Dolichyl-diphosphooligosaccharide--protein glycosyltransferase subunit 1
Amino acid sequence: MTTTIRFNLLFLFFVLVAQWSPALSDLVISRLDRKIDLTSQVMRVTATLKVENSGNDPISEFLLPFGDHQAKELAFLVATTSEGKGKTKTSSSSLPVKVVNPEGMPPSLTWYSVSLPKELAKGQSLNLEVRTAFTNALQPFPEKITQADIQLLVFRESAYYLSPYAVNVQSLSVKLPEPKVESYTKLENTKFSGSEIKYGPYENLPPFSFSHIAVHFVSNKPFAVAQELVREIEISHWGNVQITEHYNLVNAGAKSSGEFSRLEYQARPHLRGASSFRHLVAKLPPRAHSIYYRDEIGNISTSNVYGDLSKTLLEIEPRYPMFGGWRTSFTIGYGLPLKDYLFRAEGKRFLNISFGCPMDDVVIDNLVVKVILPEGSKDISVYVPFPVKESRETRFSHLDMIGRPVVVLEKTNAVPEHNQYFQVYYRFSNLSLLREPMMLVSGFFFLFVAYIIYMHADLTISKSSPSYLAKLQWDEVQTALQQIQSIMNRCLGIHDKLEASLRDLSRTGDVQACKAARKSADNMLKELSKDLKPLLSFLQSSPLAASLYSKVEELVAKEKELQEKLIVKHTTVTDSYEKKSGGRDIENRIASIQQRITALRQEVDDLLEIIDEI
């Protein structure tokens, strides 16, 4: 609805313009052929014009007007002169184009001036070819579709070429992606054949002629739009150019509504996902290497690389099919040989590399190209064959001291036509190459010297000093504590064996084996008790262990009580088994003992942890 209102207002505007604006009568377009290509999301227009000077004064420029909506959607504009037809047709290099505000012309139009290669004298003619590319010119209609629907687009334009000059003869052809059309405007001399609609020829049209046409057609071409693409080109004079591209991608086609069925999509992707896209192909340079494709989650394995002597193709597949309105973010990266892209001229080095996106099917809302030069680069200049916003940054990397200069180039509304070569010129001294290696060599050298000095220097404290003696005494205290911990842990292990013998008794009923286990445990505990006495005497006599001795003494007492309770429990159980007592009777007799054993065991473990921390 918004698009319809816009074009109705535009139609009214051009009617008023045609009545109000004066014509540039000295220049006449004797023949104009316009071709509009709608086979992708980018509308590409090629206008071939033959212009003649019918006035007396020489003419050096040709004016191109665009409506407000077209000026916003205009992504690319180039004008050339042409000679010949068909296969013999040749084109010159692009002519200078600039924005102007001509007097006496409608100010609401955006005007571009094409500088002619030479002035046109009276009666002379010149063949021009004007190529333009527009984004957002094709609008999905309806704006929302389900998974099973096809995508329909609406295209609105004038059948007549917008020009301030009179046109003797002109024609228009509109090429569609496929011969499926819902509707199209039918004017005089309109012909629809295959996937092409032709309007004209129309003769003797005055300046600013306008005739609205609309085409509603089927197109399931991918509407891949990178809302932001950041390309980082890092130069290393050690032989590599590293490219890293960060994409924030969206399908800008008709938005998907309703539920998505993965099963139906996999079974019939051409019917249940016709408006989506699943693959994108990046055309990389032929000697690209170390290629990767990943996102925030990690590496994405659904990619393939094909290559030959002329190119390297990287086919990437997002983690899910991209329906209208769906988004994804990912990063691709690769390396290139430095010698293929870095050259010397007039005492400077210059990088010669492509500017835009390597994917032909992607339109970019905001393209940021960052060229990271080696540290020490100076006298930097940039040449880009189209207008861009330029700024500078500094980036620090490993072993950098002053940082690396970064040239930042920004371009909005970028299309595949912007994937042209640009140059970055700078000066760089070969001595700067040795800076980082010398830093590494110096760092390791001083490290080894420090190590040699450390190994040969006697840094020990005097053995007669109080601090050294105190350290020795404290080491002896720690050794004694470790030995006491070891004895306590062995005692607890013997306790566990006593408990295990009781479990074996309940399973086998062998009382004699159980008594033998108790006797063996009793002997081992007595031996450990003998080993413990000299350690306790040492701690008691050491001033440094005065604050620790109370905890150790408590630990020994608790363990001693635990031994006694276990022996009582063991004796009670074996005696009960000899008297043929029942299991419940045995449990009742040892219940209070077992409760105390559990509490003591916990206290012993806690005291061991405290001593271990000390």
Notes: The radius of gyration is 44 Å.
